[in-house]
């Protein structure tokens, strides 16, 4: 009875051990290569899978996610014989686990070596200046070549990046001096443009100021001339009105023509006193007027003497 229980227990343990070694769980985004009697049998997908103990063997799980590998700086020579160091970063993904396992012995080492070789070939066709400004072009060429080579390894190169370019120390110093000179040149250009702009604005301001000043003087002169013209018209109007009033009074009086001429002669100096009178016309009959004045003076004297006698 006890011997049967022991045997049953042993068989149960064997079955449990057999089941434990037969059941495998593969995580998401990973696969397992199953070998049977040392040869490739199948590729187990993620999830629960079964193998036959002592017959099947599962290799280390292969990660199907995108992988990143960074390579140390390596020495390369440009087309103009300048030695520089370049470090790279390669992004890849395994698309065929069977090929990645059986077509290459050490995927990372092989990837590093092919990257270095390809990088030397690409940089060897470029000058230093072209290398420093053509990172995108270098990355594209590296990716194309690496993708073609690693295709038979079951690997797809998704991206290649130039991480760092390290030129020699003397080249770095020359580049720093060149950059400083370029910055100084740009600063001088900006300063000159600023001074030019300032001079232009100053000249435009002076021009506008002169235009406004001239416009003000012109308007002032126009207003002054209009004022003088208005004053002249008013003076002329006053003289006309005065002369009209005078002539009206003379017309109403009973003076003789000789007396009127005499009064006209005496009025001429008063008319000439006006500031607005620019032209004064003297009658051509001055001698006749002078005779009339003398005659009138004699008449006035006789009248005066006659009055004196009558009084005595």
Structural summary, described in words:
With 312 residues, the chain is an alpha+beta fold. It has helices at 2-22, 97-102, 107-123, 128-133, 135-150, 169-252, 257-272, 286-311, and strands at residues 23-26, 30-36, 39-44, 47-50, 56-58, 62-63, 67-77, 83-94, 155-166. Strands 2, 3, 5 and 6 form a four-stranded antiparallel β-sheet that branches. Helix 3 (107-123) crosses helix 5 and helix 7 packs across helix 8. It is rod-shaped. The termini are far apart. The relative contact order is 0.06.
Helix content range of the residues, please? 55-70%
- Average pLDDT, rounded to a whole number, is 80
Shape, per Cα inertia axes = rod-shaped
Computed over alpha carbons, the radius of gyration is: 62 Å
Classify the beta-strand content into a percent band: 15-25%
Secondary-structure element series = HEEEEEEEEHHHHEHHH
Q: Unreliable runs, pLDDT <50, ≥5 residues?
A: 289-297
What labels would you give this structure?
312 residues; alpha+beta; four-stranded antiparallel sheet; 9 strands
Helices, strands, pairings?
Layout: H1 2-22, E1 23-26, E2 30-36, E3 39-44, E4 47-50, E5 56-58, E6 62-63, E7 67-77, E8 83-94, H2 97-102, H3 107-123, H4 128-133, H5 135-150, E9 155-166, H6 169-252, H7 257-272, H8 286-311
Helix pairs in contact: 3-5, 7-8
Question: Brief description of this entry?
Answer:
The protein is an alpha+beta fold and 312 residues long. It contains eight helices and nine strands.
């Amino acid at each position: 009875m006890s011997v049967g229980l022991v045997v049953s227990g042993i068989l149960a343990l064997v079955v449990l051990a057999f089941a434990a070694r037969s059941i495998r769980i593969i995580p998401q985004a990973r696969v397992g290569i199953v070998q049977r009697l040392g040869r490739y049998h199948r590729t187990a997908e993620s999830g629960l899978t079964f193998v036959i103990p002592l017959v099947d063997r599962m290799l280390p799980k292969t990660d199907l996610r995108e992988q990143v590998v960074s390579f140390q700086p390596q020495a390369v020579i440009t087309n103009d014989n300048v030695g520089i160091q370049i470090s790279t970063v390669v992004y890849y993904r395994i698309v065929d686990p069977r090929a990645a396992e059986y077509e290459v012995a050490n995927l990372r080492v092989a990837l590093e070596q092919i990257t270095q070789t390809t990088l030397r070939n690409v940089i060897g066709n470029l000058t230093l200046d072209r290398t420093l400004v053509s990172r995108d072009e270098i990355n594209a060429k590296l990716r194309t070549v690496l993708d073609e080579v690693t295709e038979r390894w079951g690997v797809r190169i998704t991206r290649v990046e130039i991480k760092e370019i390290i030129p020699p120390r003397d080249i770095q110093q020359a580049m720093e001096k060149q950059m400083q000179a370029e910055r100084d040149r740009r600063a001088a250009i900006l300063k000159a443009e600023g001074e030019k702009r300032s001079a232009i604005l100053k000249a435009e301001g002076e021009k506008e100021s002169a235009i406004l000043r001239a416009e003000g003087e012109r308007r002032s002169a126009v207003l002054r001339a209009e004022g003088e013209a208005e004053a002249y018209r008013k003076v002329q109007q006053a003289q006309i009105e005065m002369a009209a009033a005078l002539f009206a009074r003379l017309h109403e009086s009973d003076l003789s023509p000789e007396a009127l001429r005499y009064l006209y002669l005496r009025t001429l100096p008063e008319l000439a006193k006006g500031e607005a009178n620019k032209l004064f016309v003297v009658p051509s009959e001055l001698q006749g007027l002078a005779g009339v004045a003398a005659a009138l003076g004699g008449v006035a004297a006789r009248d005066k003497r006659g009055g004196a006698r009558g009084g005595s």
